[in-house]
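cron nightly-structures :: item 1 of 1
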Amino acid sequence: MRVLRCTVFEATTLWARPLGFCAAALAAFACGSTDGDSLQHSSGESSVVPGSAPGSGSDVAPSAAPGTNTGLVSDPPLLGGACTGQVAQDTFAAALCSCEDTNIAGYLRTRGLGDSDDAGDLVGSVSVNGDYSTNGYANVGGNFTVAGSRDIAFAGLLQAGQDLFFHPAADVAGVVKVGRDAWLADALRAFGRVAIERDLYTADGAGFRGIAVVDVGGARHTQDVSIPAPCACGAGQVIDVAALVDDARTNNDNASIGLDPDALNLTVGIGTPLELPGGRFYVNQIGGVGGINLRVTGKTALFVGDDLLATGAFRIQLEPDAELDLFVRDNLAITGAALFGDRARPSATRVYVGGTGDITVAGYAAFVGNLYAPTANIRVGGFGQIYGSLFGKNIDAAGFLSVGYDAAIQQTGKGCPPNVNDVPRIR
């Protein structure tokens, strides 16, 4: 008989938004059934129309209590629950998501994993609840949304492969390209060429200024334009990582593999190996000066009760079809050589951090995986190459930032079981 092992988040309220996931999570179970029916879900790369008038295509899912329409799964059967694949699908719907500001010293480029600038259906959205600042250009594959009020100045290029949603005024000394619709709540001063493939929506008194050739492929609309915060960072929206880890401290599968919770507290030497099959496992801390090699062979959730301090060589090796959801209760510090997953499929590695300490990624090596740290600042040093996505309080890049977004993460919920009663609870 086939045993289905799953990691489920149960929530009193779930809110599906194309650019975020919010759940007051109370419990987690480890997941992955290839036999489960596909669940209905919203796509993180669909067009969202803020402040839309009737008939303009608004795509906002409702908040719901358990047992009603959650917008995440068909109702019934999960009654407000979602497994880790579903959580990842709705959390990492954008290449970059910042609860406050995003600051890029050089240029920013986002694309689907392996996509070129000439690819037909571009993905890799950038979502900023606060202000965006840069000294260079922005070449965004998906939607580009800025809800803050501080003016932005771009050098050379402003491109959104899908829709552009701007609350602030902006200056572009060069080219503006929008693959679908543009929504402007303030003036955009352009000195060059402006090309919008579909419709242009501007608030009264807003729109394009400067010296530019403006080509709008569809209609022009003057109406109220409101740009809401795109990332789910408000009260009740942030995933409670600490609560999930605290629950896993006593509800875990450690006994099945003889895992001591203190096994990775203080590593020394050239490498401490640990193999994790499918299931949910708990360790008190990950740290030390030695190397750590995690080999993951199934759909696995690993919970860390304190910090993850990668001061030595830290490596996560995923077997084919394996996935890892890593929950760190406190802080994530990467000071050594760290590899969080497979560059060919970043969607298989998801890291959730509950602490407030700054997280530095990318430095001399590319960061692979999807990082959720809504209460921490994410710092990207040098030439930052990300394979996956970043979701942080503030995102700061000291140089250039290139993100290869793995759109396969928008399908990770398909492996979730069709009915919560089919999931053996590990308690």
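cron nightly-structures :: done
The mean pLDDT is 78.
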